[in-house]
Amino acid sequence: MTAVMKKYDKIYQNEPDYFGHTSKHYTTTISGFDFENGLVLDVGAGQGRDALYLAARGHRVIAVDSSAIGLEQLRERVEENNYPIEIVHKDALSYTPPKDLDAIVLDQFFHELPNNARLKFLQKMMQHLRPDGYMLIADEKSVLPMLRSELKRAKYDLIRDKNGVLFALKPL
Ligand SMILES: C[S@@+](CC[C@H](N)C(=O)[O-])C[C@H]1O[C@@H](n2cnc3c(N)ncnc32)[C@H](O)[C@@H]1O
After folding, report:
1. From the CA of 109, how far away is ligand 1's center (Å)?
2. pLDDT by position in tens, the chain (length 172)
3. How would you classify the pairing of strands 39-43 and 101-107?
4. Lining residues, ligand 1, CB within 6 Å
5. pTM score over 0.85
6. Residue 11: enclosing H or E segment and its boundaries?
7. CB contact at 8 A, 30 and 54
């Protein structure tokens, strides 16, 4: 078990709703998704606040995280609500998602990765997003410049870039 797994298992064990509700900046952005019943990948989903929010809005979600405890808490909520959320307990760095996802959300995930793994991971995620699909990243401001540059280099349309949120549309 890695230090990150231990850290989050402990945090989530002690506090079943650790991150609270999905942030307002995030929900506003998610409401900009222009598709219905899409397939959305939530990377580093944790206890699933964003996955649950997305599922309640009619999307299918794949929730990936390395914390068994966070995902078990999510599983209980998924079963209570009969939500279409697939739960994947895995290190995101070794997970290969389906192709042609409608959106990928990464809420406070990138700062958890080692510096030298961030760019490569974003590039991998970009390959799994369909053209005209959404990349939604929220994170500490210090990690955003490299991610922003890569999105621009790949000609993504940056629809929103403020309050620690990067919301970008993949070119056709
Ligand atoms: C700051 S929390 C954010 C959780 C969730 N996205 C939210 O906003 O509520 C970071 C999450 O990333 C997960 N995580 C960190 N490194 C990971 C990795 N390599 N693979 C999968 N999950 C990871 C942690 O277990 C934790 O749940």
Report:
1. 5
2. 789 889 999 999 999 899 988 888 888 888 889 899 999 999 999 999 999 999 999 999 999 999 999 999 999 999 999 999 999 999 999 999 999 999 999 999 999 999 999 999 999 999 999 999 999 999 999 999 999 999 999 999 999 999 999 999 999 9
3. parallel
4. 4, 8, 19, 44-46, 49-50, 64-67, 70, 91-93, 107-109, 112
5. yes
6. helix 3-14
7. yes
Q: What is the DSSP letter of 111?
A: G
Residue 159's identity, in one-letter code, is: I
Residues listed for the chain: 172
- The domain limits of the chain are 3-169
Classify 3-169 by CATH class.
alpha beta
Q: How far is the CA of 41 from the centre of ligand 1 (A)?
A: 13
Residue 9 CA: which ligand 1 atom is closest? 25
Nearest of 105, 113, 125 to residue 45 by alpha carbon: 105
Give the residue whose CA is nearest to atom 13 of ligand 1.
44
